[in-house]
Design brief:
By secondary structure, the protein is an all-alpha fold. It contains seven helices and no strands. Helix content is 85%, strand content 0%. The chain is elongated, with a radius of gyration of 19 Å. The longest helix has 45 residues.
Amino acid sequence: MANINKNAKTVDINIMKINNTFKLIIAIVVSELAGIIGSVFTTPSIAGWYAGIVKPALNPPAWVFGPVWTTLFALMGIAAFLVWKKGLDRRDVKIALGIFLGQLVLNTLWSIIFFGLHSPGGALIEIIFLWLAILATIIAFAKISKPAAWLLVPYILWVSFAMYLNYSIWALN
């Protein structure tokens, strides 16, 4: 009987590991999808509209943005996973992940407004809300998982830099 209980516990642990692996994959894929959706609006504008506008001196070359955003979306996914694995039965986890999903929507919306609609002014207003949503996500995540919150620090720093770029582009054009 003890052997059966031991085997059942081993199976439960293995299922939990598989479950966590799927959660991690889903969290990263959902995060990266936000970037992919945004890139649908970004890519056509890079060689066209964006190439023709005046940019600030600190504007990085266009090739930098893809790898940076891919990395940031992966970090977001890992952070979301660390919170999600604490259990969706917890109210604070549901709220934190809801805030997280909200900031992902705002992230995608920024690309649509800036690149799709060619509206640096509209995007500047939107990126302020995005920044606040990222801050709210960090605060909510910190209450559940400190590592999850820290994984979002590079994201808020990059969006802070993007806010400067957005403002500069709006002011210069």
